[in-house]
Amino acid sequence: MSTILERYQELHPRSAALHAQAAASFPDGVTHDIRYFKPFPIYVDHAAGARKWDVDGNEMIDYVMGHGALLLGHAHPALVNAVTEQIRRGSHYGGCSELEVEWAGWIRRLVPSAEVVRFTSSGTEATMMAVRLARAFTNRNKLVRFAHNFHGWNDSVTGLTSPEESVPWSPGVPDSFLGQQIVVPQHGREELARVLADDPDVAAVIIEPTGAHASTIPIDVPFLSFLREETKRSGAVLIFDEVVTGFRVSPGGMQGFCGVLPDLTTLAKIVAGGLPGAAVTGRSDILAGIEFRADAEWNLRRRISHPGTFNANPLSAAAGIAALSTIADGKPQKQADALAKRLCQGVNQLLRQMDIKGCAYTVSSMFHMVLGVGCPPPIDGHAWEWHGKPGPEVPETSGPVVTAFRQGMINRGADFMRTGGMMSAVHTERDIDETLVALEATLSDMQREGVL
Predict the structure, then answer these.
(1) Which helix (H) or strand (E) holds 374?
(2) How far apart are CA 436 and CA 82, in angstroms?
């Protein structure tokens, strides 16, 4: 009988060959850290709905979903029609378009704190812009962020995320720059209050409002209200990084769900319907830092410059309008949430039956699994029902277990992001059932090989 690794290699010869070619062009042969995978990543040929097919013809249920961008699944008809129609009219005008006005209108309609909008091309650019706006508005320098929370790879938010240090560090970023960041525990009420009270140079506090790494470490929702009050008291700008959660947790994102409104919000992924596109939105007085004025001194020395070749490009705008208008009623979110909960309930039942340590939990349509280490499951699989509160310490699955799990699940027709993923509105109960069958077989293989 083949091992998990041997079967993976047998099923994916063309992916292996393409990776060998890619290694000559790209460091590690990949173009995104998450796609780095041993012995080689899968190369996808096409996708539709909740499924994708690799270059070797293998069909997979997809839980990566464009790294969270595809709430409506692959090649949704509304997006295909919008982008197809727009490409006939042009992909880049080098000027303003009516589409960008309509796109911004949808954001302002759906996101509770959205007074005005500025488009960028990626989530990383959006967080960079938000931090710069906050610093300029407050005339302060320091940024407070929370341990393990991820906000892209720009220098303002770069630092070790696991294990997190109180003072960030990263090669290529000057120590003086990193010294402008202060890292506190995700639920560190005392630490946060002390920093904001003692340091008058804090310009902003930034957080993933469902918890670190797309809710891998879930947030205690009342903490957001505490955070809002503390930032108001100190005068620091509160930034919600809703790059992942925007329009997914609810049509208005996490802030629409919990009612806590930040000063600035960063958006990407779903906001552009799966095409490149992002935005900063929020208070008009803060975003006014980008405005040109009838003041030469302001324009030369105080205004924040913000170019960007593909900001609000017509293709992304068309896709964004199609996506936001489709998810505005909240029905796609409810469908995806229900399926994620059903999957996690099935996983937890399976782990109990097979006497495997671990658990599965979901926040909205984002789901995660812990395998091989003790982790009591939350009530009904939802992290906000974790015996009345979210688990303060969620253990990590070891690297060898993650590798074997993902290889084994790909072998049996399901692709995950490590041991979790993103549910879409076009997944079905049949997809969940097939995934659980594949999971049982994969876990059995892992037990047989001594991985679990």
Answers:
(1) none
(2) 35
Strands 181-184 and 202-207: unpaired
Q: How far apart are CA 334 and CA 326, in angstroms?
A: 13
C-alpha distance from residue 117 to each of 73, 94, 149 (Å): 26, 19, 24
How far is 30 from 41, CA to CA, in rounded Å? 8
Say what the pTM is: 0.95
Residues 248 and 370 in one domain: no
User: For position 203, which CATH number holds?
Assistant: 3.40.640.10
Question: 338 and 242 in one domain?
Answer: no
> How many whole angstroms separate alpha carbon 186 and alpha carbon 220?
9
- State the residue range of the domain holding 59: 4-74+331-448
- The string of pLDDT tens digits covering residues 429-440 is 999 999 999 999
Q: Residue 426 and residue 48: Cα distance in Å, rounded? A: 10
Answer for the pair 265, 110: CB distance below 8 angstroms, yes or no.
no
Q: What is the CATH number of the domain that holds 351?
A: 3.90.1150.10
